[in-house]
Specification:
Elements lengths: L4 H4 L5 H11 L2 H7 L6 E5 L5 E3 H17 L2 E6 L6 E2 L6 E9 L10 E8 L10 E9 L3 E7 L2 E8 L2 E6 L10 E4 L8 H12 L3 E2 L5 H11 L1 E5 L12 H14 L3 E3 L19 E4 L1 H14 L1
Length: 297
């Protein structure tokens, strides 16, 4: 008999299980609202990016629902300029990208929700994550959550989320590379590394959604990167709400992460808006990349 998410979470402490379940319950509403939340809003987020109607709606919807739960003390969101206080009696502190890849909505491509769960106050290094998860709104809505040593995936059905696979490990040696940023803006050492991957037969798969691209690496192995660029030395991805969460999930699946010098999870955040070059994937690919980037500096 296939396990439901609730049944699978019986081995997780009660408060964390309740929070993951609460977040999973929001998936149907978010997915069902996407067709009606298209277009641009008349506002910008803290990063100066034009917000989409769907971004703002999903952000506020998730914040309101987590506030009702009483489980969350504070929250850092890509769409909010400051740390949001929810419930001073809450147990967890949350990082949130409410609708990753939202620009894909107009072309009906992949979008998702990224959530990091901490007990320590934010901002704090990703190594302090208690759990991490994402929801992918694709042809099928799936949920992936990770705790120490375990990554599990669930498919949304009429019975709710049911287990597809547990104890997921990245396939070796991996098949894909998924890289953001213009090739002409890659630093020479990184360009050389990618050329070696191509010579070895790695295939390019990049969809402009961190959730969708990470999900492919999780299932097929390889490397995802939004690298240091000549025009953006710190890359594009946000350390707290994006990079830490996905780095944690990939690590629990047997992979690794780096910013070019050290594990993303070891970085001490300077502020909640910090960006960082992000490379995640199979451990051997990350180790080789790190050696090349450090050597060429």
């Amino acid at each position: 008999m296939t396990k439901t998410l609730k049944e699978h979470l019986e081995k997780v402490d009660n408060e964390l299980a309740s929070l993951i379940l609460k977040i999973s319950e929001l998936a149907n509403m978010i997915s069902s609202e996407l067709p009606y939340r298209r277009g641009k809003a008349d506002t910008k987020n803290v990063f100066g990016e034009v917000q989409l109607i769907a971004d703002k709606w999903a952000d506020q919807f998730i914040i309101d629902e987590l506030r009702k739960s009483g489980l969350v003390k504070t929250l850092v969101s890509e769409e909010q300029p400051e740390i949001v206080k929810l419930d001073e009696k809450g147990i967890f502190n949350i990082t949130l990208d409410p609708l990753d890849g939202s620009s894909n909505i107009e072309s009906n491509n992949l979008v998702g929700t990224i959530i990091g769960i901490y007990k320590k106050d934010l901002p704090t290094p990703g190594k302090n994550l208690v759990a991490a998860m994402y929801i992918l709104y694709g042809p099928v809505t799936t949920l992936v959550y990770a705790t120490q040593g375990n990554v599990s995936e669930f498919i949304n059905t009429k019975k709710g989320f049911v287990l597809r696979e547990e104890n997921i490990k990245l396939p070796e040696p991996g098949k894909l590379y998924s890289i953001g940023g213009l090739r002409k803006e890659w630093v020479p050492s990184f360009k050389k590394y990618v050329e070696e991957l191509e010579a070895q037969g790695y295939k390019l798969r990049y969809g402009g959604s961190f959730v969708g691209d990470t999900n492919q690496i999780l299932h097929y192995g390889g490397i995802f990167a939004y690298p240091e660029l000549t025009t953006k030395p710190n890359g594009k991805l946000r350390l707290l709400v994006e990079s830490n969460t996905m780095s944690f999930i990939i690590k629990q699946a047997g992979g690794a992460s780096t910013n070019g010098k050290c594990s993303v999870l070891e970085i001490e955040p300077k502020n909640i808006t910090q960006r960082v070059p992000t490379y995640i994937g199979n451990k051997n690919l990350i180790e080789k990349l790190e050696k090349i980037l450090i050597k060429e500096k």
